[in-house]
């Protein structure tokens, strides 16, 4: 017998068109479902400057914000910060979130102290996490906020979550 040996790459052999077997395919997700996917959503929006850059405005009297996108169970907000503007100490009620600095620099004051966030920095926070975000620089800043579920509450707190810090008067 003169047979040619065959090489088997895998024990699994697929016959026919795999796309014809619909029940084996994963359905496409309508929206992000994991923290990693929400972080990825924020990054993809941040990289698509053409989708948000023309919307940014600066307001010296109050923080400017614009709801950029909504999806099933989440919202995306664009915020601008002039020098000295801050959020005040707050949490986000039942919403978790991803904060991404798009331009400039912001300072987050939270339970573990101060954290400087430059352009490209991201912070993920769980529901009930209390913090304050401030533009401590002399330049404007822009940030992107993804909340899931969508933001319905923003309870303000009487004192800074970093109350143990020594802040000059």
If you had to describe this structure to a student in words, what would you say it looks like?
The protein has 169 residues and is mainly beta. Helix content is 8%, strand content 30%. It has one helix and eight strands, in the order αββββββββ. A five-stranded antiparallel β-sheet has the order 1-2-8-3-6, covered by helices on one side. The chain is globular.
Helix content: under 10%
Q: What profile does the largest beta sheet have?
A: 5 strands, antiparallel
Q: How do the strands line up in the largest sheet?
A: 1-2-8-3-6
State which percent range the strand residues make up.
25-35%
Topology readout:
Blueprint: H1 35-47, E1 64-71, E2 74-81, E3 96-103, E4 105-110, E5 113-118, E6 122-125, E7 132-134, E8 141-148
Summarize the structure.
The chain is mainly beta.
Provide keyphrases for this structure.
disordered C terminus; 3-stranded antiparallel sheet; 5-stranded antiparallel sheet; about 170 residues; mainly beta; 8 strands; globular
């Amino acid at each position: 017998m003169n047979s040619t040996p065959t090489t088997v790459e895998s024990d699994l052999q697929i016959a026919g068109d795999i796309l014809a077997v619909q029940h084996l395919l994963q359905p496409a997700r309508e929206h992000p479902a994991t923290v990693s996917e929400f972080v990825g959503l924020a990054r993809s929006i941040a990289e698509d400057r053409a989708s948000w850059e023309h919307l940014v405005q600066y307001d010296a009297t109050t923080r400017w914000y614009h709801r950029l996108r909504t999806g099933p169970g989440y919202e995306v907000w664009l915020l601008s910060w002039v020098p000295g503007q801050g959020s005040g100490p707050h949490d986000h009620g039942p919403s978790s979130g991803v904060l991404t600095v798009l331009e400039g620099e912001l300072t987050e004051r939270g339970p573990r102290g101060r954290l400087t966030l430059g352009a490209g920095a991201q912070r993920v926070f769980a529901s009930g996490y209390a913090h304050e975000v401030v533009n401590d620089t002399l330049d404007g800043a822009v940030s992107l906020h993804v909340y899931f579920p969508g933001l319905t509450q923003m309870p303000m707190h009487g004192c800074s979550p970093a109350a143990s810090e020594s802040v000059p008067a």
